[in-house]
């Protein structure tokens, strides 16, 4: 069911509603399940729903997502001149109209980013939905870091208390005067 919902969103979903959405009926059966009768809520006898219903569910979820993104950006200090643009990538970024919806909801520029074209990787994989795949390929191709060779990144600190602190102050006064 989750796969069917994801497929329905990717193929027929949109972040921006249009007047034609009320007239356009979309089938909600999975491939190969035609003729099983109505399963979906508000579906007709051919198990189709108005596209407007799918868009309304999608935009409701996007609204909650944009609220969380706005809260996170504010909490991280990305307000004012900092953080003027939001970049989306991943499978959800392929939703039609996402950049426009995010721009109006967040009040910032928004764009969709694609992973770079890698030699040997099919051009069909140069889509936002394959950003993780591309990142993992780039990570695997990079020279591995041996964490045993990395030394400590801290300096040892000496804490003075009692007589040690008095001696330290005495030496400092003696050096400066």
| CATH architecture designation | 2-Layer Sandwich
How would you sum up the global shape?
elongated
Strand content: 5-15%
Number of domains: 1
Written account of the structure:
The structure is a single chain. By secondary structure, this protein is mainly α. It has one domain: Nucleotidyltransferase, domain 5. Helix content is 40%, strand content 8%. The chain has five helices and four strands; from the N terminus they run αββαβαβαα. The strands form two sheets. It has a two-stranded antiparallel ribbon. α3 links the parallel β3 (85-88) and β4 (109-112). α2 crosses α3. It starts with a helix and ends with a helix.
Structure described in brief:
The protein is mainly α. Helix content is 40%, strand content 8%. The strands form 2 sheets. A two-stranded antiparallel ribbon has the order 1-2. The chain has a two-stranded parallel sheet with strand order 3-4.
């Amino acid at each position: 069911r989750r796969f069917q919902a994801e497929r329905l969103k990717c193929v027929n979903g949109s972040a921006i509603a249009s007047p034609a959405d009320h007239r356009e009926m979309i089938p909600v059966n999975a491939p190969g399940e035609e003729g099983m009768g109505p399963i979906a809520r508000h579906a007709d006898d051919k198990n189709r729903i108005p596209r407007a219903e799918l868009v309304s569910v999608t935009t409701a979820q996007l609204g909650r997502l944009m609220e969380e993104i706005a809260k996170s950006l504010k909490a991280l200090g990305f307000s004012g001149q900092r953080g003027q643009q939001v970049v989306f990538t991943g499978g959800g970024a392929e939703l039609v109209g996402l950049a426009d919806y995010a721009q109006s909801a967040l009040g910032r520029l928004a764009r969709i980013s694609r992973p770079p074209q890698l030699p040997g990787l099919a051009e069909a994989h140069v889509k936002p939905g394959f950003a993780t795949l591309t990142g993992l390929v780039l990570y695997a191709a990079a020279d591995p870091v041996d964490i045993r060779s990395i030394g400590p990144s801290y300096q040892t600190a000496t804490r003075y208390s009692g007589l040690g602190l008095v001696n330290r102050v005495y030496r400092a006064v003696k050096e400066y005067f």
